[in-house]
Specification:
This protein has 366 residues and is an all-alpha fold. It has 15 helices and four strands. The protein is globular.
């Protein structure tokens, strides 16, 4: 692992201009390009969980991205110092610490820039639409599906927000030409969570890098350029893991705060749940058959009653299954069943990609 290569400050369209008045590093220039971009500002109109809210308290994708950016930079500072002091990696130079922090700060800002409205539920809706309709579309009498290459087809069927983010910043966001924001390759490599094409998806491999796709067919050249320059060659960039950790920390804590503010759960119930938290029981703590049984509940804490989808009038298969999501998730469904079914994002890792708009899971249930 060569840190100088991993922290490559080259751009897809080469542009380095020395100036006695501009003392910024290339990564600091990335930050200013992002902050001043329309694509970044548009995140203010994408909600994190609660759509069309009257309160200005709850998060949007913009505020969430700012929080992730801050956390990612902090993680970068701590881990960089650990590499120098504890690991004693001689290849990790003093200037690399600042580069790591700047890259992660920028990556946090743009990690959701390609997400559609309603997050993962929006992704699923796009995927389902193409699966159901692409075969019926024609161009000059010929089926479009017959005109596309296998990867092109799978790109439509596996549309993914992170993949779209790479496309937005390298192509769609027009700054001066077709290269989008023309960000540094180290930054681009960091936001590629899944460095495989749609043909390389293998959710059963046990390797997170093949869980989803990382680039569209049209962006293959840019993807390969970034991989070569950063020296990752089909593997995740090490800073990607820190970015993902910052994202998890941000939404897991913020979603609880927003839920309490919205009145989905009370502060008292949250406190009870936290006091009764047992990591080893998280796959067992669930409400079964509408809340009749809740295993492992803290002493004195009563089940909230009928809360599963079937109790809310949901007739779809599996609607009566709490899927081990825990008390707080079921409380949300009990209070906000209709809104949750119609568009909130399932945040539980086990159910995030199952295509069911079942609702919103608090981070005590992972």
């Amino acid at each position: 692992m060569n840190w100088t290569t991993l922290l490559c400050d080259d751009r897809i369209r080469s542009y380095k201009k020395s100036s006695s008045t501009d003392l910024r590093t290339e990564f600091e220039k990335d930050y200013h390009r992002i902050i001043g971009s329309a694509s970044f500002r548009r995140l203010q109109d994408k909600t994190q969980v609660f759509p069309l809210d009257r309160s200005d308290f709850v998060r949007t994708r913009l505020t969430h991205s700012l929080e992730v950016s801050s956390l990612a930079k902090s993680l970068g500072q701590n881990i960089s110092e650990s590499i120098r002091v504890n690991v004693k990696d001689d290849t990790f130079l003093p200037e690399h610490k600042a580069a790591v922090c700047d890259i992660l700060q920028c990556a946090g800002l743009i990690h959701d820039i390609g997400n559609p409205p309603f997050g993962h539920f929006g992704e699923t809706s796009i995927q389902d639409w193409f699966k159901q309709n692409l075969g019926r579309l024609t161009f000059k009498g010929q089926a479009i599906s017959d005109m596309l290459k296998p990867q092109m087809l799978q790109d439509f069927y596996h549309f993914e927000g992170n993949t779209q983010a790479f496309r937005v910043v390298t192509r769609l966001h027009f700054l001066v030409d077709e290269h989008g924001m023309n960000l540094t390759k180290a930054l681009l490599g960091t936001i590629i969570k899944y460095p495989v094409s749609s043909l390389g998806i293998d959710k059963k491999s046990g390797n997170i890098r093949t869980k989803k796709m990382g680039y569209f067919y049209a962006d293959k050249d840019n993807f390969e350029d970034v991989q070569r320059s950063a020296g990752t060659f089909g593997m995740r960039h090490p800073l990607t893991f820190l970015l993902e950790a910052a994202d998890d920390i941000a939404y897991k804590t913020a979603d609880i705060e927003d839920a309490v503010k919205k009145g989905c759960i009370s502060y008292e119930r949250l406190l009870q749940e936290l006091r009764g938290f047992r990591p080893e029981q998280q796959t067992e703590d669930c409400l079964v058959a509408g809340g009749a049984v809740w295993q492992g509940r803290p002493e004195g804490l009563q089940p909230p009653g009928p809360v599963c989808g079937a109790e809310l009038g949901d007739k779809r298969p599996g609607a009566d299954d709490c899927r081990g999501d825990g008390l707080l998730y079921c409380e949300l469904r009990r209070h906000h069943g209709r809104q949750l079914r119609e568009g909130y994002v399932r945040r539980n890792r086990r159910g995030a990609s199952d295509g069911r708009p079942g609702g919103y899971c608090l981070p005590l249930c992972f």
